Sequence to fold (319 residues):
Amino acid sequence: MGKYVLKRVLLMLFTLFVIMTICFMLIRMLPREMPTDKNQAAIIEARWEALGYNKPLIVQYGIYLKNIVTAWDFGTSWNISFSTPAWDLLTSKLPATVLVNLYSLLVSIPLGIALGVFAAIKKNKWQDSVISTLVMLFVSVPSYVYAFIVQYLFYFKLGWFPPVIKSLADAGGSWFSWTMFVSMILPIMSLSFGEIAGLCRFTRAELTETLTSDYMLLARTKGLTRAQATTRHALKNAMVPILPMIISSFIGILGGSMIIEQIFSIPGVGQLYVQSIQQLDYDVFMMDSVFYTFVSLLAGIVVDISYGFIDPRIRMGER
Fold:
């Protein structure tokens, strides 16, 4: 198991290096845009000259990697937030992204699993047909479509929730205030619909297969009721592939939140990523690319390793 984890970590670092290299080369090939302010332009030019940004690309990349390893310096934002370190800019935007995604998971996981369990128990009945039809509908629609629908219904028609989230100043300076949570309900709903449908479909498929297995028949012949056999045996075995899927669901929500953050004006990492591309803020783009790539690769390792912890019979790396 230890050898497998070490191997996966080394492969993750190599993959991260390759993706970083490609992103760095592509973004540095784009033309530079200097600000109209002459003082700012002079500062940027001096900074680029000091960091060797006027040298060949391979030399620039070597300097960039050296700064990361030796000083944890991922560069500086010059267009989005003048003279702000890219790392500091990312960490300042991280709470909004993490909070919206966390709330979405807290809504999606129990609802998705509960609907999947109910559909599996009511297999081939009208309840199962209704849930399966709705699941196919919600899985097929992207999250940004839900964003426009919930904005139209709950803001324009009903006026229950604001169309965009509140700023920190309007929410009392706290991300965890009730005002901030209410303003996040619409983006949370937009991100949750697809994840609920995906978890429901996966749970139903796994639990349906488990309910028809031989050991479930044996449990029933020993005198257990259907409810007892389902909760004591079927659910535990069905959760083995479902729990790692929850981890991957976080990555799916995180990727979809880039567009959602634009629609609901969420000052998060996804909105920062889009701004870095639009404004050609090279170092911020690289910082965000590294962040999303690292989280995705790390989640893949955690999902694979979690199988061994959830089910002791599974041992990764064995022949």
